[in-house]
Design a protein that fits this description.
Elements: H1 2-30, H2 37-47, H3 53-71, E1 74-76, E2 79-80, H4 82-99, H5 115-118, H6 120-135, E3 141-144, E4 148-151, H7 161-182
Parallel strand pairs: 1-3
Antiparallel strand pairs: 1-2, 3-4
Length: about 180
């Protein structure tokens, strides 16, 4: 059970990493450098403002980390709702890498494996994915079409020890990523 869950998590990370690399490669080839920088600078200014550990941590915690888990409270068919938003974060990071549209942009990052351990974005994405894995079975509501939602019969919110382990691991990864990003 523990090994199967870890393999499922690793497979999810592998698929999302491939998606990130595809977006990175395509946008590096097709789009000009810095094309989205003004957009992301405005978003950063609105969400974070002052570049401190607390503000960057809260900006990452509230929308991507906890937002993905909130979406997992909904199920569309047999698929947790977080699976509809999690790939968006991975794709956005690939686009950021490909276009070098970071708020604090340096030289363009060439497509390479080193980004997996040298950039904080990948660690943040792992944290969001660990949060998704922690909460993938927490669905309390079933989505029917675009507007109808119903309570899942007999379903209670009961996190397991494994859920808490993934949640704590994700939170730990997020703390490490933010500490590296603001260089505490």
């Amino acid at each position: 059970m523990i090994l199967r869950r870890f393999l499922r998590f690793a497979a999810t990370v592998a698929v999302l990493t491939a998606l990130m690399y595809a977006a990175w490669g395509l946008t590096a080839l097709l789009l000009p450098e810095g094309i989205f920088r003004s957009l992301f600078t405005r978003l950063f200014g609105a969400r974070v403002g002052e570049f401190t550990f607390a503000r960057v941590f809260l900006a990452n915690l509230i929308l991507p980390f906890l937002g993905t888990q909130f979406m997992n409270l909904f199920r569309v068919g047999k698929v947790p709702g977080g699976l509809y938003v999690l790939p968006v974060f991975w794709l956005l990071y690939g686009v950021l890498l490909g276009t070098n549209s970071f708020v604090f942009a340096g030289a363009r990052v060439p497509v390479s494996l080193s980004v997996l351990w040298t950039r904080t974005g990948f660690t943040e994405l792992l944290a969001y994915t660990a949060g998704y894995e922690a909460s993938r079975n927490w669905a309390l509501w079933q989505q029917h079409g675009l507007t109808r939602v119903s309570r899942i019969e007999g379903k209670e919110w009961k996190p397991s020890l494994g859920d808490w382990a993934y949640w704590a691991g994700g939170l730990g990864l997020l703390i490490i990523a933010v500490a590296r990003e603001v260089q505490i």
